[in-house]
Description:
The complex is a heterodimer of chains A (338) and B (140). Chain A is an alpha/beta fold. Chain A has two domains: 4-180, no CATH class; 207-336, no CATH class. Chain A has eleven helices and ten strands. In chain A, the strands form two sheets. In chain A, strands 1, 2, 3, 4, 6, 7, 9 and 10 form an eight-stranded mixed sheet that branches. The model of chain A has no long low-confidence stretch (mean pLDDT 91). With 140 residues, chain B is an alpha/beta fold. Chain B has four helices and four strands. Chain B has helices at residues 20-29, 51-59, 80-97, 114-139, and strands at residues 11-16, 38-43, 64-69, 104-108. Chain B has a four-stranded parallel sheet with strand order 2-1-3-4, sandwiched between helices. In chain B, strand 1, helix 1 and strand 2 (38-43) form a beta-alpha-beta unit. In chain B, helix 1 (20-29) packs across helix 4 (114-139). Chains A and B meet through helix 9 and helix 11 of A and helix 2, helix 3 and strand 4 of B.
Amino acid sequence: MQxxxxxxxxxxxxxxxxxxxxxxxxxxxxxxxxxxxxxHRIFKGAIDGHVxxxxxxxxxxxxxxxxxxxxxxxxxxxxxxxxxxxxxxLVKLTQVEPEGIIAVSVDCPGTVSSxxxxxxxxxxxxxxxxxxxxxxxxxxACRTCRERRGVVGDAGVRIAADGSLWACSxxxxxxxxxxxxxxxxxxxxxxxxxxxxxxxxxFHTDMxxxxxxxxxxxxxxxxxxxxxxxxxxxxxxxGDEYLPKGDALLNKVLRTGQGAMPQGREVxxxxxxFHVSQSCVGCGACEEACPQSIPxxxxxxxxxxxxxxxxGYMSGRNADEAIPYLTFQEDELxxxxx
Amino acid sequence: xxxxxxxxxxxxxxxxxxxxxxxSEMAGSLRMKYPDxxxxxxxxxxxxxxxxxxxxxxxxxxxxxxxAGCHPGDCHFIKGNYFTRRKMxxxxxxxxxxxxxxxLRLFWVSAAEARRFVQKVTALYDGIKEAAHADAGKRN
Lengths: 338, 140
């Protein structure tokens, strides 16, 4: 399908979204600017205080969309590309009913951790892009981001090279979003954000390095709870089987002599790493939530990129691509057979 | 990781009840010998094996883990082992990233291939034993 685009003139987006919100049962999920920083907000009725760009990363917004099965409500998501990619993965995993949802990915020049309070952070897209030219000002996860451009989901809001904003449509639902914005379709201009570079070689480490990095882990499982694509209601690690407690723990220590506490750090993180490997978008929400500042994003992102590369897959890139573990080819992967 | 039982590797195997487990039973009834450090867990299909089982086995002290099922195309549930192959290939890639690829094997053994089963597990057992021996040699 041909990408359609319209320039977003001053105030045209607000006007369009307000018109959309005028109808019953319509919501916009985006960011709200305020004195305490920029946070997620679901707008109803009017989009007062809406901002397009959020330079602070706290949680991945797709986390709030899990188990959203209502077909009645119409929702426009105005989120970062990583959040839209997680949403696309959740749709593939049948955790979200996409019927009434228009997913709009907004160009993301980069973010800082929400724990940091940077005084001179600009609020507009081009300003942020200029600020994040120096990549070391970003969070580590954003530095290695694979898709900063708003090219995922149904539609995108892009920053053109001249600093103007453009709405682009990629699907029929995206056309509906484009219809909300006043103006005439025009040819897509050159964009400010380019394609992200390829990852720097396959991730490789060993258990000694892992043990060192994960030594401070207190097994609070925050990383699991904030992960947008770690969606199982009945997690393996909720019961006693994988993380024994009480009598089960006593028996295990008596049997194996493994007494290092807390138990099961390796199992917990490696199993989670595998389980989210094909859907991980590398947003770094896990690292953001970690009270012990473990470099989780580097591990999860490295492993997931490596495992997705095997199948030529990229999480959330395309809603029509099947998740590799849920499909197969009859003649493949003979190297893995012994 | 548990201290290795002196010279006797512990191997956990997940075997499909329709083929590899049958092959192991047949190996028993034919009085073929395979190493006693091999513990077999019967699963209804090799695709029942969540990589979590493998990772848990490794960190609870197994020196190696194998997952074995029917040959591709012969799955009792039509296509289960194709999914197994994808999952285990990816898991091997992940273990490779952590420099412990040698801890996981994936092989196909039909119910009639008792000899092949014995060969496969014996080769795995001997390989692990040799590697452990070489490691111990390096340390001394």
